[in-house]
Amino acid sequence: MSLRIFETDPESRPKPRFSSDTVGRFRSGRMAGNRPESLSAWRVTTGDPEVADAVAKTYGGRPEEWETSAEDRLEVLTEADAMKIIIDGPQAIRSRMVLWGRQGPIHECDGVEFLSPEEDKGTPCGCPALLADRKAAAKTGRGPAPSVEVTFSLADQPDLGRFRFVSGSWELVKVLHEVENKLEAVGGPALCTLRLELVEFQTKSGIDVRYRKPVIDVHKAVQPAEAPF
């Protein structure tokens, strides 16, 4: 039988902690019913109540539970569309092309060669050469789509731990090499801005399109005293 000391003092019960190597995840959208919804400000999810409270206090919003089977059961719909972050060099960015199946990735490559499974690693992946053809294949579910993962800490709350942002944005992929080159030039932890930029245009058929794309701006090196790593 386990101890029951917290039944008489529930306020002292240890709070559950997020067991992942990151304390939370940044998201630019959510599901509204069965349809994806793009957001104008960052949404942060976490399994740690203390992290959720700190994010809400700094960037607005309030912690609320959302329906998920993952550990990050708390979400904060912040009021910020741009946040200062610290990225620890280009190695903090992982990019790949992935086609997901029910049990995991069924195609994983770098656009030219397979990254997995191990027996296929380094061999030609067979993806189309042209970007337009890659997009078309991904849209119909016949080819892989981009997956860009960025690990970082918050410049305003560096001691909270590392967060993760995962994006499938083709627009981010187009400039990702520039971001990585700038991080390489900094040569260590870099102060950056992670923001959602509004994009508006009208199609040839007269349909108005409006969405926000993720953008990473690299500013300068972070002084050793400021870096959480």
UniProtKB/TrEMBL annotation:
Composition bias type Basic and acidic residues, residue spans: 1-14
Domain of life, source organism: Bacteria
Region (Disordered): 1-38
Alphabetized Pfam families for the sequence: Gp3-like
UniProt-recorded name of the protein: Uncharacterized protein
